From TrEMBL:
SUPFAM superfamilies according to UniProt: Ribonuclease H-like
MF terms (GO), sorted A to Z: nucleic acid binding; RNA-DNA hybrid ribonuclease activity
Cross-referenced InterPro entries: RNase_H-like_dom_plant, RNase_H-like_EbsB-rel, RNaseH-like_sf, RNaseH_domain, RNaseH_sf
Ranges where the RNase H type-1 domain occurs: 25-133
Family matches, as Pfam families: RVT_3 (PF13456)
Protein name: RNase H type-1 domain-containing protein
Amino acid sequence: MVSTPSWCDKIECGCVSNGERIWIGMGVVARDHEGNVVAAAVRRLRAWWPPQIAEGRAILLAVKLARRLRHENIIIESDCESLIQRLSKASTYLSDFDNVLEDILASCSVFDSIQWIHVKRDDNLVAHHLAKLVPFGTEQVWVNHYPYEISPYVISIRQFVLLLVHQFLTFKKKEANKNNWILQLQSSLFT
């Protein structure tokens, strides 16, 4: 997971398909700089897209959600490394995949800044599980909350972050106590 600067919002996106690639599910989770979920979206389509195009469509859904929320500075995370590399270079050619890239890049013109980050599948767990949901209709968006089906994943990530912060503060406190003990010893020896 990438830590998010205070002036930026993070959008995680992912997609899943059934074995025959007949149904494509896309999931998007928008977080503020503190890691709180501010919105979520899921879209399910009947399509026969290759995995790269499906991931590209999930990123396009993420960009559209960020625009709808009026975010200005965003970080987009995806587990599709080749797609993130191409978006980072803003390079397009003449394939179906490049049409998706052009749609994404054109939709990004409203942002003050955008970063494309590749993450491992395990770090994209919330969006991946969200993509498995079946929405009412083809698309569903939640603003200021998220579906209860992904709550265990959202909570576990928050608990993990809180645990890391607690361990860091405990370590710092022990280091400070250790340094105080050393300083007290030094002052008693040299006075």
